[in-house]
Amino acid sequence: MAMPKKGSRLITVDDTVYRWRVSRRPTYSRDKGWTPLTFAVERAEQPGSVLVVSLPCARPDNWDGKRTIVIRPVLAGRCIRRAVEQGWDSRKPGSTFTLTVSEGELTDFLGEPPQYLIPFLWGMIPEGGGIEDLPRCTQIWSRDEPGTRGQIS
Hints:
The protein is α+β, with helices and mostly antiparallel strands. The protein has two domains: 9-120, no CATH class; 129-153, no CATH class. It is built from three helices and seven strands. The strands form two sheets. The protein has a five-stranded mixed β-sheet with strand order 1-2-3-4-5, with helices on one face. Strands 6-7 form a two-stranded antiparallel sheet. β3 and β4 (51-54) form a beta hairpin. The chain is globular and about 50 Å long. It starts with 8 loop residues before the first strand and ends in a 27-residue tail after the last strand. 18% of the residues are buried.
């Protein structure tokens, strides 16, 4: 059965066109951040075996504010290339091939340390960031000015 085209993206790696996507609806355990962020990959034309890539972070829509990343094409491409090196043959039908990416490999694939994000109310903030990183946020009180607690600024 082929991957749904809706919500998927095309990427060409070593002259082969693939389709990849993160599942649209998380399971309860994925939603809670108990399982890692994953995405699936298959050949765009004449799909065979599916690759499932598991990353060392939670889904962006997790409820617990666990760190996540944006899956960029450079990461998807390097994961595909690594899976092929490890024996994934996307032309042959068969069982799912799983690639588990470690924290160190993630840095290697991206060419820099990952830019983690933390889900926060209606958006995301960079890991280690604060309320000032949310463009739509209104500061309710200033922690620096005594006596302004509870006042809208």
